[in-house]
Fold this protein.
Amino acid sequence: MNRRSRAAIVAIGSEMLGPFRRDTNSIWLTEKLEEAGIAVVRKAVVPDDPAEIARELSCASAAAGWIFTTGGLGPTADDMTVSAVADWMGVPLFRDENFVSAMRERWGVRRGIRMPAVNEKQGDVPQGARVLENPRGTAPGFWLEKDGVEIVILPGVPSEMREIFEQRVAPFLGRAGAGESVTRRRVLRIAGMGESAVEELVAPLYRKWIEDPVTILASPGEVELHLCARGDPSAAEARLAAMEQDFRAVLGSRIHGADGEAMAASVGRLLKERRRTLALAESCTGGLVSALLTDVAGSSAYFVGTVVSYSDSSKEAVLGVDPETLRRHGAVSEETAREMARGALDRFGSDLAASVTGIAGPDGGTPEKPAGTVFFAVADRAGREEARRRFFGGDREMVRRTSAMFSLEMIRRFLIGAA
């Protein structure tokens, strides 16, 4: 792989070395660079410290022909990326007074207020840099070159970084010597199965696709298969399609979506296609299933509403669960789950309804029903019903999240008629 087909990403910001902020820009940049035939061979997060920035730039320039930095272009004292890069390159900064005047005008027109003086530093330009206009903010990006290495400086605000890259950088990557070999990826998402169960089914395919990396990743209630193929664009697409076909042949309807489609979006798509409406009755999940569904734009077309019936009295009063059912079987039982689903079906007048009731923990469990025991039910107006019992390990948050995902998967399989 030639040097021009290799990139390093440097995320600059002391806050990302703490526990509250994550570097998400590098994930997005990696995808876009792979599409252009540039492999990311190094990533780093460094603080707002000129010495640390310079140290990482030196390491990155030894490893790659492209360096992309994000962050540190703001107006405050700790935003020092531009000056640090200029010092490392050995070039002076000059203040572009025309740019500063344009910034003042934008503040006055768009915000109706005077631009603070500290923003003037965003008009500082390293000598020899190409300025990358920022239509979403005040901080521009820059494109420089040193000893055959292309250095692209981008803002840390994701929307600003993405727009500058898409508009000012991406169109020139091919012309600037990017590689002809590209990377194509696809993510297959599987629910209702554990990581080991998925691994057991797909393991024989690893031998067939030994030259193409396949990664299996687990998250609460879901497993992801990451497929990857490299080559010229048409060959990579063809290999990726063949890989996907093989994995779908093995996993069948357990695959609920590909790439960015979340489980809730998969369920919503099925409801829209079948022109069905859904209502929910949630206990231990506390409305989490509803939250996942309504995170999807347009969910009002198929999602009617929910009852968070946390107490026994609300199960009786709102959902019509028989007090005798609660007395004999308990709130955490198949019988109660079924009656909760029927109650939601009646109360909302939806085409189908689902329920969740369980013990999220850490306390409240019994030897017969330990913490992590959860019951699920789905019912429709045709009288069809299904119920399941599951046990989920982990802490309270893990049990609730896994339960919400399992409920969505149960609704999905109910809709497609899968066992």
About this structure: The chain has three domains: 3-173, 182-258, 263-416.
